[in-house]
Amino acid sequence: MKKIGIMGGTFNPPHIGHLIMANEVFHTLELDEIRFMPNAIPPHKEHSITATSTQRLKMTEFAIKQNEHFKIEPIEINEGGVSYSFDTISKLVESEPDVQFYFIIGGDMIDSLHTWYRIEELVKIVQFVGVGRPGTLGKTTLPMMYVDAPLIDLSSTFLRNRLSNGQTVTYLLPESVETYIRKEGLYGTK
Ligand SMILES: Nc1ncnc2c1ncn2[C@@H]1O[C@H](COP(=O)(O)OP(=O)(O)OP(=O)(O)O)[C@@H](O)[C@H]1O
Ligand SMILES: O=C(O)c1ccc[n+]([C@@H]2O[C@H](COP(=O)([O-])O)[C@@H](O)[C@H]2O)c1
């Protein structure tokens, strides 16, 4: 059976926190590949999304380009609307029955996992893999496999603020992603 990691996110923008956690899980669980899956409309996010789906997809493509084991899963962007993981994972499991999917999440998502849409059914069709995140408990009573990874206190929100204030983001996200952000004038960079 193939073992595929799903790294779901809003990626507004993607950063090294996402890449580090995906890579750590890839190696620890000896996965065959990791698919980065940008959502269309995230179920629980309060802030308005300041980059389009296409721009977030593009940034995610740039972010993973150097790693041959990292791929894009465009299903949620292609379908549009609110991206409920239960709906998405059900479709993936149906179309690829010979794959065990591992859904990778950080501490904040572990803490709020019990609030996800149809979560009791979702945990039966996908294995959740949790990694720590500074400022979160990273605890749940739902089935969870934990992977130890270096803690990175970094978020897309922090990067959007840095960019809109004209402050440095060097080394916090891939250079190609920063170049794209500045070319498109995202997050107040123009
Ligand atoms: N620094 C980090 N450490 C651990 N997990 C992280 C980190 N940054 C993001 N994640 C996890 O990556 C997934 C996707 O996160 P997302 O794209 O929403 O980034 P974010 O930095 O949390 O964004 P925002 O600041 O806009 O809320 C989530 O499961 C989240 O918990
Ligand atoms: O399905 C849900 O109810 C649900 C609720 C919150 C988050 N998710 C998914 O979890 C992943 C990380 O979410 P976020 O908000 O940190 O980008 C992303 O793939 C989201 O679509 C899914």
Structural commentary:
The protein has 190 residues and is of the alpha/beta class. It has one domain: Rossmann fold (3-Layer(aba) Sandwich), CATH 3.40.50. It is 38% helix and 17% strand. The chain has 8 helices and 6 strands; from the N terminus they run E-H-E-H-E-H-H-E-H-H-E-E-H-H. The chain has a 6-stranded parallel sheet with strand order 3-2-1-4-5-6. Strand 1, helix 1 and strand 2 form a beta-alpha-beta unit. Helix 2 runs antiparallel to helix 8 and helix 4 runs parallel beside helix 6. The chain starts with a strand and ends in a 6-residue tail after the last helix. Nicotinate mononucleotide binds next to strand 1 and helix 4.
Give the key terms.
single chain; 190 residues; alpha/beta; Rossmann fold; six-stranded parallel β-sheet; 17% strand; binds adenosine-5'-triphosphate; binds nicotinate mononucleotide
What secondary-structure arrangement, pairings included, does this model have?
Layout: E1 2-9, H1 16-28, E2 33-38, H2 53-64, E3 70-72, H3 75-79, H4 85-95, E4 99-106, H5 107-111, H6 119-125, E5 127-131, E6 145-146, H7 156-164, H8 175-184
Parallel strand pairs: 1-2, 1-4, 2-3, 4-5, 5-6
